[in-house]
């Protein structure tokens, strides 16, 4: 991996340098002392802007560099925020434990061994793989699952989600739709202030439109998709400006870190 731009942490590495694992982690370190939740999104796109391959899955367009940063960002997060539709299409499972030195640093800092997974669903529908996954296995215990929903889901659906995930693991935020600022505040109140949003495109647009998005980590892979695949954000009008902070190149893949001005 070769660093092309570093306006985030100049002391970590200089443009032109090759990055080892420690330098890469330093370039994606969360800012300290903000006194509030920090919402980071991680998305991938092709050169022509497609957010998925022809089968509708992001896994089709992932590259080794993208998967490396994907794992790193999960390791640095307290909670992964994802839309229920994306969780179903992409086959989401409970997050795996952090590994190596990152696990030791997380535990030393009072963080959990695994990030949590927070699924956003207006209908409170728990994706089947998450409902069936008990969270254990050969890798050790996996992270827990939270449902983020709203009152419009109805008592029956909310009750079923609570029986599936646990009575204290369903967050009802909002009336007719999910109140994302309230949801992020509720996650922070549970000790989960470092939020990693993995989409899909509608959730990302909603998060940005609500003024919650502090940072966008965008991978651009060296491929054209064509077809009619959607962009990384669709639906709500976000109209937000961001500043480039980090740019890394690896075998044609461009890894970018953008933050909102003043963040």
Keywords:
263 residues, Dihydrofolate Reductase, subunit A, 8 helices, 21% strand, globular
Walk me through this protein's architecture.
- This protein has 263 residues and is α/β, with parallel strands linked by helices.
- It has a domain at 78-193: Dihydrofolate Reductase, subunit A, CATH 3.40.430.
- The protein has helices at residues 21-27, 64-76, 84-89, 100-108, 128-132, 155-165, 180-189, 201-209; strands at 2-6, 38-45, 79-83, 116-120, 145-149, 170-172, 194-197, 215-220, 243-250, 253-259.
- Keywords: NADP, Oxidoreductase.
- This is Dihydrofolate reductase family protein.
- Pathway: Cofactor biosynthesis; riboflavin biosynthesis.
Task: Provide a compact summary of the structure.
InterPro entries: DHFR-like_dom_sf (IPR024072), RibDG_C (IPR002734), Riboflavin_Biosynth_HTPR (IPR050765). By secondary structure, the chain is α/β, with parallel strands linked by helices. Helix content is 27%, strand content 21%.
